[in-house]
Amino acid sequence: MFLYPLISDLCYMSISPLPLSVLYIYEFVFRTLCCMYVSLSLSLSLSLSLSLSLSLSLSLSLSLSLSLSLSLSLSLSLSLSLLYVHMKRKLDHGPDGRPFPTGKKRCKGNSCPSSLAPFQATPTTFGELRLANGHSAQRRRVTSGPPPSGLQDWLHIFQAWSGPERLLAMDELIDRCETNQVKHMMQLIEPQFQRDFISLLPKELSLYVLSFLAPGDLLQAAQTCSYWRTLAEDNLLWREKCREEGRHHSLGVKPSQRRAKGGPASSPWKTTYIRHQRIETSWRTADTRTPQVLMGHDDHVITCLQVSGDLIVSGSDDNTLKVWSAVTGQCVRTLLGHTGGVWCSQMSVATVISGSTDRTLRVWSAESGECVHTLYGHTSTVRCMHLHGNRVVSGSRDTTLRVWDVVTGQCVHVLTGHVAAVRCVQYDGRRVVSGGYDYMVKIWDPETQTCLHTLEGHTNRVYSLQFDGVYVVSGSLDTSIRVWDVETGGCVHKLTGHQSLTSGMELRDNLLVSGNADSTVRVWDVRTGQCLHTLQGPNRHQSAVTCLQFCRGLVLSSSDDGTVKLWDLGTGAWVRDLVSLQSQGSGGVVWRIRASDTRLVCAAGSRNGTEETKLLLLDFEPEERGGDE
Questions:
Q1: Among the listed ranges 75-79, 176-180, 563-567, which one has the minimum average pLDDT value?
Q2: Which of 92, 93, 278, 593 is a Cys-bridge partner for 622, taking CB atoms 3.0 to 4.6 Å apart?
Q3: What's the pLDDT score for residue 198?
Q4: Strand partners, 466
Q5: Percent of the chain with pLDDT over 70
Q6: What is the pLDDT of residue 115?
Q7: pLDDT score, position 232
């Protein structure tokens, strides 16, 4: 029992004149940087001269540089490190073979400082170190009676030794200690390594460190203590996380999601992130609820479909458009006026524009059902259109394109140059891109009514287009997809792999998703021309792909086989079937799909009377949870 008071006193004496700042360095090396959940990698280098430079490499190449003026011997500065390692090894391989369980120490309440403390005198003994760290100066004494005789003399001798001599003495002493005695020493020393480094940094640096954590780790870090929770709730921090994953502040947030009962207000961007996460989970895994069935176009084909907010607009070859409530599933308006089948439509908020075989376009108010304007000018079927702001560009079988002002109803520009029907068009407010049955793709300046580039290369009709301001992507009946530079008009890539007509494409963030009549969906990188995934396998479509959309890392595809499938954009893996018509495989077709954040609308029917024409409305709104996010 002589060793207990000796160990205690040795730990509180000058094992070495050790500055507090150096202990912080050792603490980083031996303890996890974050109290419970944060895992950061450290790279430690010491250089001794007039100043010591400490370089920390935190997680994804984070580096913090601190300069500390220190005057100390290298052998003395390493003494605690060597002692700690020796005791740890002794303890890990002690007689009972069980390591000493160390607890996790959390900062309490809001007591953690938000910035570095003012400079204080460097402690030179372990007792002074405890005082500097806020521990009681009165250490825990062992209940073993009075101290042994000669202890003070031994301690005086120990204190007179040099640093290396003390290390040697401690080394020999630890070798002679029993496991419970080493545990006692660990109880004295180990708490000094359990410091929260985040609380020692300015708030800006702390947030910078936390910005390297994944969102899930941030949610866990918020449970460490109240100060960490304050940092982890930072709105700008979560805005950056949303930006990194393409999650925008577009989803409605319910009042119960803004504030927990009796709890602090949560970060709006954190709430947005969590809501997006729950919605994506709902799309992937939630039980598919029985879809609402919206009947109204009888046995006619639904040719176009638009969704805006809580409104759905469907157009049909029965000459009508219908406006539906996505909340109730009821038809609230029937838009009457066309004298031929409706072949295309666009929608912005409550304004609907439609094009028909009667050679006209009509501008409608979805709320009142009123036809605001009838746009005359085309001499054949209006086959395609694209709306941007108050301008809509229409393409017709009469080989022309027209630019219209939807507010005044006036035709402001006419673009001529195609020698066959215009089948597809894109418009970004500055340039018009059109594709036609003449195998050509054209880029126009609508203000001057001039063709800037004619993109030649396809050997058959162009059926689909995408345009993001940098690239033009065209899909053709010749089975190829071509990527063009919008500025030069040059063909950047020819994408091959499909075996038939590319009927639909979606382009976003340099990723192109293409649906083809060969029953496959492909994902491409338009910068490299590489095919990243072919969405097929055992759960592939069994017939031509009719429509597709992608968002939230998911791809939705519909087909002539009567199904709507969900795919993982990142891996190309099939996730599940969202819709399977009863007549699938025997005539049932899903013609069009449109998806919002929480809804999927499908236009379905058949060409042989085996399936009634209808809209299917599926809701993926996640069930609300109580409590704080």
A1: 75-79
A2: 278
A3: 80
A4: 473
A5: 72
A6: 38
A7: 86
Report the largest interatomic distance among the alpha carbons of the chain, rounded to a whole angstrom.
Answer: 115
Q: Give me Rg for the CA atoms of the chain.
A: 35
β-strands 321-325, 391-396 pairing = unpaired
Domains of the chain: 3-198 (no CATH), 210-285 (1.20.1280.50)
Q: How many CA atoms lie within 13 A of 579 on its CB side?
A: 32
Alpha carbon distance 458, 474 (integer Å): 9
> Residues 268, 249: contact at Cβ < 8 Å?
yes
> Could you give phi then psi for residue 275, rounded to 5 degrees?
-65, -45
Paired sense of beta strands 351-356 and 342-348, if any: antiparallel
Tokens 């910035």 belong to residue: 115
Cα angle 167, 170, 173 (rounded to 5 degrees) comes to: 150
Strand partners of residue 293: 616
Residues in the chain: 629
Q: Nearest to residue 214, comparing CAs of 378, 405, 457, 40? A: 40
- Give the containing element (helix H, strand E) for 129: helix 126-132
Is residue 451 predicted with pLDDT exceeding 90?
Answer: yes
Q: How do 302-308 and 292-294 pair as beta strands?
A: unpaired
Three-state SS at 578: strand
The rounded distance, in Å, linking the Cα atoms of 168 and 166 is 5
Residues 6+ away with beta carbon under 8 Å from 347: 306, 307, 308, 311, 313, 353, 366, 387
The answer to whether 514 and 521 have CB atoms below 8 angstroms apart is: yes
| Spacing of C-alpha 468 from chain mean position | 21
Helix axes 79-92, 163-175, angle to 10 degrees: 10
CA-nearest of 201, 160, 183, 210 to 39 is 210
β-strand partners of 534: 522
Residue corresponding to tokens 């969900």 = 566
Structure tokens at 6: 């000796």
Packed helices 3-12 and 179-189: angle between N→C axes, nearest 10 degrees = 20
371-375 and 321-325 strand pairing: unpaired
In this prediction, residue 370 carries a pLDDT of 96
CA distance 80 to 71: 17
> What mean pLDDT is predicted for residues 271-284?
88
Model pTM score: 0.68
**Residue 292 structure tokens:** 């609402």
DSSP state for residue 264 in the 8-state scheme: P
Residue 236 structure tokens: 């700008």
The answer to whether residues 460 and 477 touch, using CB atoms and an 8 Å cutoff, is yes
Residue 42 has pLDDT above 80, yes or no: no
3-state secondary structure at position 241: helix
CB proximity list for 262: less than 8 A, separation 6 or greater: none
**What average pLDDT does the segment 448-475 reach?**
97
Instruction: Give residues with Cβ within 8 angstroms of 390, minimum separation 6.
Output: 405, 406, 407
Q: 283 vs 62, which has greater pLDDT?
A: 283
Of 280, 209, 286, nearest to 247 (Cα)?
A: 280
